[in-house]
Structures
1.
Amino acid sequence: MNQISIKVGSRYRVDRKKIRSSVEKVLSEHARVECVVSVSIVGERRMRELHTQYMQDPTITDVLSFPQYDPTQLDKNFPLLVVNDPITVLGDIVVCFPEAVREARKLGKMVDDQICFLVEHGMLHLLGFHHD
């Protein structure tokens, strides 16, 4: 069974079951072993701190992913996700709640749906899928 940790700032209301389902969906499609994933829902100040510290960009972003493996070794490590290892620690996903709210309004979506979209996007990054 996958180990999914969801941490939410006390002022944010989110559907934890939907978030868990989003993580499980991506894992069922792309991973063949049990995985450990952490999802945190944070405010603008925390997201700005993380974005500045790890990406050297002081702006707010909607989602960040922090793999718990060396991404430069992904081609060598990715097969570990499809063998019968006992468990694979993928990493952490951080979603900025206020940014997700803004995006949801702009796109005419429910906030929980946008958060789940961002979580799935972050999961794909943890699994090695990237975009330009």
Note: Helices lie at 16-30, 44-55, 74-77, 97-107, 111-126.
2.
Amino acid sequence: MQTKNNLQEFYSEIEKKRREVNDLMRRKMPVHAGRIAVNHVQDNFRKGGFTNNGLHKWKKSNREIYGGKAAAGNYGTLLSGRNHLYSSAKYIPGDARVSIQNEVEYAGIHNWGGTVSPRVTPKMRKFAWAKYYALGGGDKDKPVGPDVGFWKGLALTKKTKLNIRMPQRQFLGESIELNEAIQAKLDQELEKIFNG
């Protein structure tokens, strides 16, 4: 009789652990993995590159290379005062899965690179003239900034469409370090279940 009770206890303990593991994999682990992934993506922004088998630095933006007195010159590549792209990374947990996404409309062109073709509008020309004059263009007493020629060229261009090549600055994607961090969290949670 004692053996039968021990066997029933053993089976009920196994069933309890099975339910806990099932709950972990279907409910808890997607949330843990999502949080780890979003932290990984945001860490890519802070480091200025994509971490996959080491850090792969992004190409510097022109505002970083040429600097300037404006606050924008102080921010890293893909970062700004609002950090919209950085803070828009999110995770959506599902049943035994998680989806990581960034729904900002320009996230894809930055993540994969490519060519964008914006139309040159009157508003854009007006902005270019304002930048031209703000940087000292047309004023002999004011020192001329390095971008004056660019802004004047944009204001006077006959083109109706521009072709701008965006380099790839990947921040979302498959990563060895991310997979290792998720696996370590899974191992930790399983250890809690089986040793608890």
Note: Strands lie at 49-51, 55-57, 89-94, 97-102, 114-116, 164-166.
3.
Amino acid sequence: MAKMLLCLAVVALAALATAAPKPEEKFTTKYDNINIDEILANKRLLNNYLNCILDKPKARCTADALELKRSIPDALTNECAKCSEKQKELSEKVIRHLVEHEKASWDEVKAKFDSTGIYEKRYEKILKEKGVAV
């Protein structure tokens, strides 16, 4: 009888542990306050970020560029579910800048992260509503 109660207790604890809500996973907000306008206005800084995320030879990746590079695939796949509101704003601003001013770089980014065009199709309507013509 004691063994049966112990077994039931273990099963009940296991059920509670798996049913307990897990904290929502988010991307780090450590870099949310970077000056994105300064980066976009400075060709050298922008190219450093682009070279890093595109795995260009001799690219020097800063900590924030590495974090961005690691986050892009998940953000695309999961509709930026782990993004903060600030990260969504910054993403839109960067995409707009690349599309309007750095088309060749935008094409390279798309080739690396969206070679099949699935994400462009998925987000095209949203971007157009925000005035970004991809």
Note: Residues 1-22 have pLDDT under 50 and may be disordered.
4.
Amino acid sequence: MQLNSRIARRIIETVGAYGTPPEYGFQFFTAGLDEYLRCIHEEYLKTYIKEEGGSVVKIVIGAYGGGKTHFLYSIRELAWQENFVVSYVALSPEESPFHRLEAVYRTIVNNLTYPLQPEELLKGVEKGIEAFLITWYEKQMDVFKNIGLKGEVLEKEIEQYLESVQRNIENINFAKAVATAFFALHDEDEKTFKHVLQWLKVEGYDKGIYRPLGILSPIDRSNAFSILRSLVQWVRNIGYSGLVILFDEAEQIPSLSTRQRELTLSNLRELIDACMYTSFRHVMIFYALPDERFFEGPSHIYEALKQRISSVFDFFNPSGVKIKLENTKGDPLALLEEIGYKLKYIFETAYGVRFPSQIENVIKIVAQEAYERRFGDIGYIRLFVQGIIKVFHLLRKNPLLVNKTSEICQILEEGSG
């Protein structure tokens, strides 16, 4: 989809207000990531994960406001191109705590998305296991109807199809649940469908309800990995390439207790170890967090995990586990200027304006200011994009300011608090 004023306006509003990329539109101002994205696409998504049945975990390290979400959105787009199901999870201590395995699974299914087109992203298509099941049912029924199946022949074909879908799914309860959901949609049995959804989303277990459906136990910590493997096996059986999971952890690390922190690290280590076994196939997991110090501590858990993630990913060593976003950037000022030029074009498209050539000097100055004002764990990219959009708005209202860079800097400084 080409950039138009509607998309451009949405980009400017999202980036200018929050410093974060929109779900669609980030592509128009991506910079500095091409080599890493190409490597992940070619080495993993197109080949090792999709064709060879591999599974890997990558740890993405980037400052708060340093481009982690932008990077993960880029991965999601590439994964969809290769027909992967994707679950993008914004981790939080309350809603999606990583220290509880069953909660990790729940957040994954609550954020499942089949490959989406730009128009669907812009419309805000519903995500999660309910929408995913309904889409699966509707697409498969279209296949049956397009080849002329109806009546008893159709019913028999549905039974045979669901038998094939359940084949080779590790957890029998999971296999039974997704097949029951399909039948419930076909029979317009809303009550049964809702019960299955509640089980799949780890929202309780009542023997009286689930045992008659053939679902004999709840999802809990003891079977969470088995259920996760079964989820991947199911999406493969219904025609997708596999599953890509994107964990985006922003600021929750300091709020965890020592025990929760150790459980989080232990679960992450288990995920990494699971990728070494052939039973966990066609999966790629990214865990993005702002601070590498999270992996430092005195216990054996910290040491065991550090050994597993010591290698660094780059173009020459794609097998490395840690992706350090700071290493992708090269000259940080040149990167900011490139982003600035792209945002300038987006802003011009959004508002139907044209900035004079002097805007290039303004972009350079704002880039320098943002880089010099970076502090602590706050990434200078976010400081820059919010600052430059504020400047574009100023120049839209008062074009003569383009030659008064000192005034622009003063306005930015006054607004930084």
Note: The chain has three domains: 33-115+240-328, 131-223, 332-415.
